[in-house]
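Figure-free illustration: sequence to structure, shown twice.
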Amino acid sequence: MSTVDSAWITDRLREVPGVLTAFVVSDDGLLAEEAPGLSRDAADPWAAAASGINAAAQQMVQCSGGSLSTRTRTIIDDGHSSHQIVQRAGEHTTIVVHVSYAADMGIVSTTLEGIVQRLGSALGTGQRST
């Protein structure tokens, strides 16, 4: 799937205070690796949802005349409020980060953007044939 080992990416993100979990998914909603802190049964729907969020964001960008959506943030009211960030990170690849409401979103965003910039096009999954 991925052309680089993605474990260091999510390990680095999980070191940021307030990050609850982070994992890499393909555009078709499949996990590229295990999602630490989540069972496979819990992580699979998140991966599928992230794929859907990306698809919806891309459609909205096209409708407005843009070319690419790179990040979408969702605020989740789970009794404590948290954020989910869906960040495009390579060809057909997305990083999903679940963050507590108390986290410093500036630090989370800066860390995430730094990782994506360092990766360039190295992180990516090939498009699957149908």
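We now fold a second protein in the same way, so the two outputs can be compared directly.
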Amino acid sequence: MFRADRGRKHLDDKERAAIIAYTNDGKSVRFISDRLGIAIGTVSLWQTRYAETGDIIRKNGSGRPKKLTAADEANIALAVEAKPITTAQEIAGKMLLILIRVPAPSFEFLKEED
């Protein structure tokens, strides 16, 4: 039913829905796996998850959390829009100056004492 050479990691909504539809029709895990071209373990996982939650939505990934805030992302977008040919180092340097908010240098120490 779905392409044999999947070439991607996650099932889309149609594939997950097909698993549940075949399950509700009483089809075996092996049949569903062969028919959809999806590994048996994946079919079983989605059957179990649907039975527990009643939903076919993927869980959020457990990858590395974002370090950028929405404001940081907006600043990057503005920097790229202002100067489309910009290196990542230039953007990082500008953001660093914004984050640190370095005050203008003080040259009081250069004044001669009376």
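Summary for the second example: Residues 48 and 54 are 10 Å apart (CA to CA).
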